C-alpha cells in the first residue's frame, strides 16, 4: 500500500496505556496512518506528537471527518463506552474496540482472528438491526485468555471437556507500571477484579455460533480460572490443565500445535504472527522476560506439555498482554476487516 494512500485511523482513548501502545505500533504500519487522536475532555487541546487531542465526546463530528475508522481504547465506565462507540458507528465509522463494554452485546462479534474470523459474518446483521450503513462495532477478547483459548481451538479434535487454568498476569494489564504501583514490587496479589469471570465465560462466545441475529454460546469445555497479579511489567503466563474426551499423546498434541492451519496464513496480514503458535522443547520455557516479545509480541508460546494425574494433560503458555492481548490484537482485527472488505478508505456518510 502506497505511503500516501494509507487508510486514515483515529484512536479514542489515545492518552491511556493501550492508546499509547496503539500509537507506537501504528507508527510505521504499512496500511494505516493515525490522523486523529481523542481522549477525555480534560485532555482536550494537549498534543501527542504533531496531533492535537480532541474530546471523544464533544468532537465526534470533527473526528469522523478525519478518519475512515477508529480504534477504541477508552478507559471509562462501560455504559459510557457503549454510548460513545455506538455514536461513532452511527456516523458511519467502523469501531475496532479493545474494551469489554460490548463483548456480551448479542450482535457484536468478539474476534480472535486466527480462531473465529467467520464471526465477522454478523456485521451485516448488526448494521441492518441498527440502521447503520458503513458503521459497525467489533471487539476483541480479554487479554487473560489469549494464551490458552488458541490451544483449546487447536486441540478441538481431541474434544477438551474440562479446563483448569491459572494465569499469572503482568501489572500493565491493570494499566500500571512499577513507578505508579510500587506496592506490587516483591508482591503477588491473588485477586484481579472480574478477571476470572471473563476467563471462564468469554471462550463460550468465541467458540459459539451465529444463529439468526445473535450468538449462541458453547460452554464446552467447562473452564475454571484462577487469576493472579504478579510483579512483571508485561506478559501473561498461563498454567493449563485439560481433560480430553478422546485419547491422545504428547506427540499428537505437539503435532497439532505445529501443523495448525488458520485462515490468516493466506491473507498476509502485516501484524499476524508466523507461526501463530511456537512450541518450546526446553523444560523451562516459555519464560515471560525471554519470550513475551516473540514475533513482535504477537506470537503465542507453549511449553511443558506433560501428563497430569488429575485431568490428563497440562502445559504452560505465554502471550504479551498489551500487544497480542490488547493493541496488537486490535490492529490485527482491523487488518482482517480490511482484507474482508469491511474497512475501506471511503465510506458513505449518514
UniProtKB/TrEMBL annotation:
InterPro entries: ASADH-related, Asp_semi-ald_DH_pep-lack, NAD(P)-bd_dom_sf, Semialdehyde_DH_NAD-bd, Semialdhyde_DH_dimer_dom. The active site is at residues 143, 236. The keyword Oxidoreductase applies. It comes from the Bacteria. One of its GO terms (biological process) is threonine biosynthetic process. Signal peptide: none annotated. Keywords: NADP, Oxidoreductase. One of its GO terms (molecular function) is protein dimerization activity. CDD domains: ASADH_C_arch_fung_like, ScASADH_like_N. Residues 8-123 form the Semialdehyde dehydrogenase NAD-binding domain. Gene3D superfamilies: Dihydrodipicolinate Reductase, domain 2, NAD(P)-binding Rossmann-like Domain. PANTHER family: ASPARTATE-SEMIALDEHYDE DEHYDROGENASE. Belongs to the aspartate-semialdehyde dehydrogenase family. This is Aspartate-semialdehyde dehydrogenase (Non-peptidoglycan organisms). It comes from Candidatus Yanofskybacteria bacterium GW2011_GWC2_37_9.
Amino acid at each position: 500500500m502506497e505511503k500516501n494512500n494509507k487508510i486514515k485511523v483515529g484512536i479514542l482513548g489515545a492518552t491511556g496505556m493501550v492508546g499509547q501502545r496503539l500509537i507506537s505500533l501504528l507508527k510505521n504500519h504499512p496500511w494505516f496512518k493515525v490522523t486523529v487522536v481523542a481522549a477525555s475532555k480534560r485532555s482536550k487541546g494537549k498534543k501527542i506528537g504533531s496531533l492535537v487531542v480532541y474530546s471523544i465526546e464533544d468532537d465526534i463530528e470533527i473526528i469522523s471527518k478525519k478518519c475512515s475508522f477508529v480504534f477504541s481504547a477508552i478507559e471509562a465506565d462501560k455504559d459510557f463506552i457503549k454510548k460513545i462507540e455506538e455514536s461513532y458507528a452511527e456516523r458511519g465509522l467502523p469501531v475496532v474496540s479493545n474494551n469489554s463494554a460490548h463483548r456480551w452485546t448479542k450482535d457484536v462479534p468478539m474476534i480472535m482472528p486466527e480462531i473465529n474470523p467467520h464471526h465477522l459474518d454478523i456485521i451485516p446483521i448488526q448494521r441492518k438491526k441498527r440502521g447503520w450503513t458503513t458503521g459497525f462495532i467489533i471487539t476483541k477478547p480479554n487479554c487473560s485468555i489469549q494464551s490458552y483459548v488458541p490451544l483449546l481451538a487447536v486441540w478441538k479434535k481431541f474434544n477438551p471437556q474440562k479446563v483448569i487454568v491459572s494465569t499469572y498476569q503482568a501489572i500493565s494489564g491493570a494499566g500500571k507500571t512499577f513507578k505508579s504501583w510500587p506496592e506490587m514490587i516483591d508482591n503477588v496479589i491473588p485477586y484481579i477484579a472480574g478477571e476470572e469471570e471473563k476467563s471462564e465465560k468469554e471462550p463460550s462466545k468465541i467458540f459459539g455460533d451465529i444463529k439468526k441475529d445473535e450468538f449462541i454460546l458453547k460452554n464446552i469445555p467447562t473452564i475454571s480460572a484462577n487469576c493472579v497479579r504478579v510483579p512483571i511489567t508485561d506478559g501473561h503466563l498461563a498454567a493449563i490443565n485439560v481433560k480430553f474426551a478422546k485419547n491422545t499423546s504428547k506427540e499428537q498434541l505437539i503435532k497439532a500445535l505445529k501443523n495448525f492451519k488458520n485462515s490468516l496464513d493466506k491473507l498476509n496480514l502485516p501484524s499476524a504472527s508466523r507461526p501463530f503458535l511456537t512450541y518450546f522443547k526446553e523444560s523451562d520455557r516459555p519464560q515471560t522476560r525471554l519470550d513475551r516479545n516473540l514475533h513482535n509480541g504477537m506470537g503465542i508460546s507453549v511449553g511443558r506439555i506433560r501428563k497430569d494425574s488429575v485431568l490428563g494433560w497440562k502445559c504452560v503458555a505465554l502471550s504479551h498482554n498489551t500487544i497480542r492481548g490488547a493493541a496488537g490484537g486490535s490492529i490485527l482485527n482491523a487488518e482482517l476487516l480490511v482484507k474482508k472488505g469491511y474497512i475501506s478508505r471511503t465510506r458513505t456518510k449518514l
